[in-house]
Amino acid sequence: MKLDVTDRKILKLLQQDGRLSNAEIAEQVALSPSPCLRRLRRLEQEGIIEGYQTQLNRQKIDLGMTVFVQIKMHDHHAASVKNFEQAIHGMDAVITASTVSGSADYLLEVVASDLEDYDRVVSKLQELKMVREIESNFALRRVKTAAPLPLKRLSD
Amino acid sequence: MKLDVTDRKILKLLQQDGRLSNAEIAEQVALSPSPCLRRLRRLEQEGIIEGYQTQLNRQKIDLGMTVFVQIKMHDHHAASVKNFEQAIHGMDAVITASTVSGSADYLLEVVASDLEDYDRVVSKLQELKMVREIESNFALRRVKTAAPLPLKRLSD
DNA sequence: GATGAAAGTTTCGTCCT
DNA sequence: AGGACGAAACTTTCATC
């Protein structure tokens, strides 16, 4: 599915402010509200827009600690993978998780209030039998946070 | 600043859908629109809500490749740190960056269309004189993506 | 794609409890 | 604090060009 310059402008604006009204978007992309809304709905229906989210300040909701956790598994049998990923989905302190290339199998991003809180998360991970090794890398300072995805400027 | 149960309900709802209208939020937290809007504005003004964002499908905007990049620096002099972080801010393929504990100094999340595109990013990083070592870990599959932050259920 | 009209919502200030 | 009212703005659909 193709995105023209106007679509990309709309997406760029919405990444910066997900609550922009259609009227405001229309004005900024130099369209009248009707066609602008048609584009917006199309972007939503095609799944290009997956959803709208609210960014919270982690410090202020007492989740000031972010830890990147590398997990190595004992094996990669289907059952182990399934059980591990199920466990991950059930742990709400784990906010992102990916399988990765390299020496680790999974990279998780975990939030916690403090070390004690974090320790509880690690303990849960250690209890999982398919987990062989856990390495915790604490985020000391966030240099860049949730920057917008760069939309290519080319090709109409 | 204290968050009561209603505040947390509002934040939970808004994390799930950042475009909820005040009227909809009010209904779901069993408040009338007026006090609900007052709470929302307070959450925004106190900085607990940092902003509203739109989630895009990376595949569909041709950014299907995500790479976690660990960077080791030659030194940690103020000038090196400043220049490096400035460079990071200027690279829009780098969507998140943190300093981390452990053997690496920085952990970056980089998006790209494909390997060729990613290679351009790495080349730019390699050109930075304060960078000593770069390790790329490719995200093979995302198991959990941008899950909402877990708000404690306790303490009114 | 633009425009305009009309009905329904939403926001937000004000006033009341 | 929460709730109610009202004015202005916004959304959305529809018909039309």
UniProtKB/TrEMBL annotation, chains A, B:
Q: Which Pfam families match?
A: AsnC_trans_reg, HTH_24
Q: Does the keyword Transcription apply?
A: yes
GO BP: regulation of DNA-templated transcription; response to amino acid
A GO CC term attached to the entry: cytosol
Annotated HTH asnC-type domain ranges read: 3-64
Q: Which UniProt keywords apply?
A: DNA-binding, Transcription, Transcription regulation
**A GO molecular-function descriptor:** sequence-specific DNA binding
Spell out the InterPro entries in the cross-references.
ArsR-like_HTH, AsnC-type_HTH_dom, Dimeric_a/b-barrel, Tscrpt_reg_AsnC-like, Tscrpt_reg_AsnC/Lrp_C, Tscrpt_reg_HTH_AsnC-type_CS, WH-like_DNA-bd_sf, WH_DNA-bd_sf
Domain of life according to the entry: Bacteria
Matching entries from SMART domains are given as: HTH_ASNC
Query: What name does the UniProt record give this protein?
Result: Lrp/AsnC family transcriptional regulator
Protein source organism? Amphritea balenae
